[in-house]
Amino acid sequence: MGADLQLTGLASGFDWAPVVDQLIELERIPQKRLESEKQDNEEKMSDLTLLKSQLDTLNSAGKALQNDDLFKARKITYDADSLNGLSASAEAGALTGEFIVSVFSKGTRTEMSSKNRVPDGLGAGLSTSSALKDLPLQTPITKGTYTIAGKTLSIDSLDITLAEVMVSINAVVSGVAGVNPEGDGSGITFELSADNNRIIVDGGEQSSSSALTNVPILGSPTDTSNFLQSLKLLNRQTATRHANLESGS
């Protein structure tokens, strides 16, 4: 079938279709005007939004310029030797100049925690019957090796008691109790003092003088256990004790 063919004005001799189209276009003029005005208004709104954003930025920058600290700010610079482990800061208005800081020693980080606390734990006295892992120490003992007067001993388990460790240190070898590096019959032994709740290291030296000549050497750079450090034996104080010795003994 072919397309419908419509001819207007055959009977009257007047082609009315173009007139109708023009009338419709005239009716749409207000609609097109509103659409054009809408587009113009949307463009103006976009421009106003951009302008507002720029004004807000300008306002913030203006407030920053009113801050007195802006013109009193200070900058820290370091020389090449100060970059390792040294930091500094300066508040606004701080005194300007060049300063030299002398560092004589560096501290080490220490952590104190109560996460491993047990009843009568931290702050309680030492007990030789307690396992190493249960001793009320600030720093828990670790497994590994430790050195007494050049002799290497080891802690393979933290379930053993302090008494068992002291037995291994105070073991009698060739008739001498304790570690005997000099082979002179005076062994180094450990004992727990109930009076001041600390481990006493007895060097076995016997002398009528109060001066000690053979202070026991504890620890080694190759130690892998912190046993001596945890018991505060590396930063120790020396002292003499009175003993009743019979003549010829």
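the 2nd protein, sequnce then structure:
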Amino acid sequence: MALTVIGANAAQLREAAGEGSWVSPETIAQRPRNTRDLWREVYEMMPELPLENQYVNGETGERDEESTLISRLIRYHIFIKARPNRFRLDWKLTLADYLGAYERMVRDTYPGANVLTENPLEGDQAAIASLSRQQRDRLVHVLTSLFNPNYLSLVEEQANRELAEGTQETVDETSLEGEERRQRQVPRLPQSGDVELLLP
């Protein structure tokens, strides 16, 4: 979901987010901040995401169902890359790592590399690459909103501010007379002798 919203209020943001994807700031503020369990909330909000939890734990010899794509992504973001978890851009950079578009991911330091019998890096990269752009945008939105309780209210404030600015510009444009409006929209072309205006 793209969050470049111009002139939207909270109701429109909820509608644009789609069924079940809008989470109120109050709900998020009440959620636990334990990073070990946040992956569960991501899957609750986005059940279409691949789990990628088929890997076997080397110590127990059993399938490690707690080691999911999102749990590893969160650990990679926070503990391996030490990126802030409150900002969209940082989550986008992490997804860019998975897509091979930003920083190279190191197999030996990837979460689960030391515990699982098979390194999940390639599978996780393929899983992220299989997501549509809208799914990746929505994932960034969900992760940011979980780690930053103020995020949704900030998005709403920005949308309302842009709506107010857009309304103000429209009012200003309509109040101008015809010739004045045309002059305001089209910059004046350079005329001969304009260079003399630059002289001291």
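The radius of gyration is 24 Å. Residues 1-9, 26-32 have pLDDT under 50 and may be disordered.
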